[in-house]
UniProtKB/TrEMBL annotation:
Keyword Transmembrane helix: yes
Residue stretches making up the Cell envelope-related transcriptional attenuator domain: 74-223
Protein name: Transcriptional regulator LytR
Transmembrane region(s): 7-28
Gene3D superfamilies per record: LCP protein
Domain of life: Bacteria
Amino acid sequence: MLKKIFITLAIVVGIVLVGGGGFIWYLYHSVQSTANKIYDPAGGSGKNSSAIKNLQAFPILLLGVDERKGDVGRSDTMIALTLNPTKKSMQMISVPRDTKAEIVGHGTVNKINSAYAYGGPKMALNTFNNLFNVNFKHYLRINMEGLADLVDAVGGVTVHNDIDWRDEGYYKKGYHYQKGDITLDSGAKALGYVRMRHLDPRGDFGRNQRQRDVIMAVINKAASFGSFSKYQDILNAVQKNVKTNLTFDDMKNLASNYRDSKQNVQNYEVKGSDDWEKTSSGSKIYYLQISDDEKERVHQMIQDQLTDE
């Protein structure tokens, strides 16, 4: 779900950097303070990122976590984002949360979203890298509740909804999401929109699409503000809900030199087959089984995006 939250912060940084004057200086330091507070090297130190300094293609693993008090939560959204400033392209590969994988460092085979619950961003990175034979070193994690805060910060967003439904179950708030262009005028309504899965015939794939749509709507609205006062609300939302091993200098360089990467956006959802496995208790558990060919396809897609040819 939350693949482009990082870009939101980068946009804020970029706008600040091209400004001037005393108030801009104050806001610059607000962004710097936020970046320092969300910095967390738990997944490995992100300092001195040579790829960013040398304007090379840059990969980062985005993790959307449904984290509650006393519960680390699982990474129900996992997206491999690779920015290539030379190609002016951005690649986003979504890994379904039920993907069967070896949980590196835990000694088990489980759903890939459990890696974060067992060992935080470091185990999530190692598990992803092992599954697709790649080497991602940076991560950005956002709590699911953070999306609601961001939607509230920008004053709501408008998206196009493909199906008509009313919310139900644990998150039921009485919202009716009509087919067509709809306004999500509160964070709570947006959260219900992106969390729904069982009423969508596309399941997880449909939910991922709604998540992408809401995040892009947040970014576009944030970038259109004429008043800097709104950005403080966005920074507060980011500070409460985001952790990353990207440093402030990394973010400045990305905002300044990688902004054209958004010109060509490539989306891909990892494919697999349904697999029901019987547990020791006799019950069944669902996995998405990824073939070796699909693993190689994803590996090659990432490698191609990392090269400038």
